[in-house]
Specification:
This protein has helices spanning about 10-25, 65-80, 95-105, 120-125, 145-155, 230-235, 245-250, 260-275, 285-295, 325-330, 360-370, 375-380, 380-390, 425-440, 445-465, 470-485; strands at about 55-60, 80-85, 105-110, 130-135, 160-165, 185-190, 210, 250-255, 280-285, 300, 315, 340, 355-360, 395, 405, 410-415. Helix 2 (about 65-80) runs parallel beside helix 3. The chain contains 16 helices and 16 strands. The structure holds ligand NAX and potassium ion (K). Potassium ion binds near residues 132, 133, 135, 136 and 164.
């Protein structure tokens, strides 16, 4: 801002915002370069041939977010749209934005007594597009009173809700939703993706995300949260070199499954085999080992951790049951990198002395931290950070947006999840994948985030063919997912 004339950034933001609205109103097919990272992102477009004659309503809060909406509204009005503004507080409104809007032929439907005039409500109901400019990054706490009412009205009744910078009422920095908020179909965000657009529950309110570049790039600090794209993952997948052998590729010890949960052993060994482990050494009861060998003849087996030959990493806990805590503790005390999943999480020492990747879902993390599951789901980043700090370990919190939080503070959010992965055994496959990557030498942050990404792509592939895939379908889709990720980036 210091290097530019006053208001220049807002003009860039408003121009980008108006351009996205115009494109949506044109009904442009597939013209959107935005993030479809939820695997959907298809927006039902109110095709009208363009802004001319379209009904656009601006919800205008008291700060610069409202200013963006007013300036964009002015641009759309000049292109023939019928643009109405509902101003939340007439005593606090972006002055130059409002004048530009009125000069361009925009109308204000609210009055000094408040925003909820009959004309305003009617306009929101009939709008092709509602631009939510109530709150941006200056918002604190959820929406109140009239703002909350308008947000609910727009989300329920209006054509398409386009959030300016972020859906008003979400917490920009955490992904929490402290109260009432807008539910948008599209979010047009400026300069950089806000953390809250990437982490649930707030991310769910953002819809399809479009980034408008306003020239902040050279000035941005290191991001608080990263999201790997396909190419980033492809570059991190260990590709065997000319002199590879099974030991150099990484030997994974697998302490998983039990006579009660045999399937977990098959799925997690399978995840490790397809995840590129040079060898998987399975440690478990004779009858489970026999099943593992029948399905995965490339695995080798031993009765327990003590009798397992040399490994480079351990994956511990998927379907392990209650009675092998001593072995879990032995693996955790080996000093080798360890992935700890499911039942293994109940055997964590107060402090870990090995590089560790913990992979709880919300319920398991709640138990680990002795808090409510609902609270973990509402404050995913907060609790994942807390566990990473407490155990000095990388924490992969599974769920609708999988987070991977390293004890040094780095955070990655996975872009490839799909609800199809919410099925029994899916986590066992992920544990195998992550374990193989740890054994191959990836650090826990990379192992966790690459495994989650591959797992998500496999889930999407499986959902595309099986509709409602089982964990076995996801496992079967892993090799294809790896091939497509790597091949797409010319690394094969
Ligand atoms: N900072 C920048 O470089 C740019 C900012 N831009 C826009 O400016 C926005 C930030 O503007 P502001 O800092 O003015 O902040 P906002 O517009 O987000 O909020 C403004 C005011 O709302 C009030 N408020 C906060 N929480 C509230 C609540 N729960 N209920 C009711 N009122 C509440 C506060 O008094 C606050 O001052 C961004 O989100 C973006 O839209 C863009 O114009 C591009 C450039
Ligand atoms: K907003």
């Amino acid at each position: 801002m210091a290097t530019l004339p006053d208001g220049a950034l807002m003009q860039r933001a408003a121009a980008g915002l108006a351009a996205v609205c115009a494109r949506i109103l044109r009904g442009a097919d597939n013209a959107s370069p935005g993030m479809d990272w939820r695997g959907g992102g298809q927006v039902t477009r109110p095709a009208r041939g363009g802004p001319y004659g379209a009904r656009v309503v601006l919800l205008v809060g008291s700060g610069d977010n409202g200013g963006d909406a007013l300036w964009a509204g002015a641009r759309l009005a000049r292109r023939g749209a019928r643009v109405d503004a509902v101003v939340l507080r007439h005593d606090r409104v972006h002055e130059s934005g409002l004048s530009a809007f009125l000069d361009a032929g925009g109308r204000v439907l609210s009055d000094d007594d408040g925003p909820l005039t009959p004309a305003a409500e009617q306009a929101v109901r009939k709008a092709d597009i509602v631009l939510d400019g109530i709150l941006g990054i200056g918002g604190k706490g959820g929406l109140r009173d009239d703002a909350a009412y308008l947000a609910a009205l727009a989300s329920a009744d209006a054509g398409l809700v386009i959030a300016v910078d972020l859906p008003s009422g979400i917490d920009a920095d955490t992904g929490e939703t402290p109260g009432a908020h807008v539910r948008a179909d599209v979010t047009v965000t400026f300069g950089t993706h806000k953390v809250g657009l990437l982490i649930d529950p707030a991310a769910e309110a953002a819809g399809h995300i479009e980034l408008v570049d306003i020239g902040l790039g050279p000035y941005l600090p290191r991001p608080a949260v990263e999201m790997l794209e396909h190419g980033d993952v492809a570059a991190r997948i260990p590709v065997p070199g000319r002199h590879a052998d099974k030991y150099r590729r990484g030997v994974l010890g697998m302490l998983a499954g039990s006579t009660r949960y045999r399937g977990a052993a098959l799925l997690s060994v399978g995840g490790a085999v397809h995840g590129g482990a040079g060898m998987v050494r399975y440690a478990g009861p004779r009858e489970v080992s026999a099943m593992v060998l029948e399905r995965w003849p490339e695995a080798v087996t031993a009765p327990d951790v003590e009798h397992t030959d040399r490994v480079q990493a351990w994956a511990v806990g998927s379907g392990l049951g209650d009675d092998r805590g001593d072995e879990a503790e032995a693996a955790l005390a080996s000093g080798l990198p360890v992935l700890v999943d499911a039942d293994g999480l109940r055997h964590l020492p107060a402090e870990l002395t090995c590089p560790a990747l913990l992979t709880p879902h919300a319920g398991e993390l709640a138990r680990m931290l002795d808090v409510d599951r609902g609270d973990v789901e509402a404050r995913r980043l907060h609790h994942a950070r807390e566990a990473a700090r407490r155990w000095g370990a990388t924490v992969l919190l599974k769920g609708s947006t999988t987070l991977v939080v390293s004890p040094d503070g780095r955070v990655r959010v996975n872009s490839t999840g799909t609800p199809a992965l919410a099925t029994a055994g899916s986590g066992d496959v992920l544990a195998g994948l992550g374990g193989a990557l740890l054994a191959a030498g990836l650090d826990p942050l990379d192992a966790g985030s690459v495994a989650a990404h591959i797992h998500g792509v496999a889930g999407q592939v499986a959902a595309g063919t099986a509709g409602q895939p089982a964990a076995s379908d996801v496992l079967d889709a892993v090799p294809g997912a790896m091939v497509s990720l790597v091949a797409a980036h010319d690394l094969l």
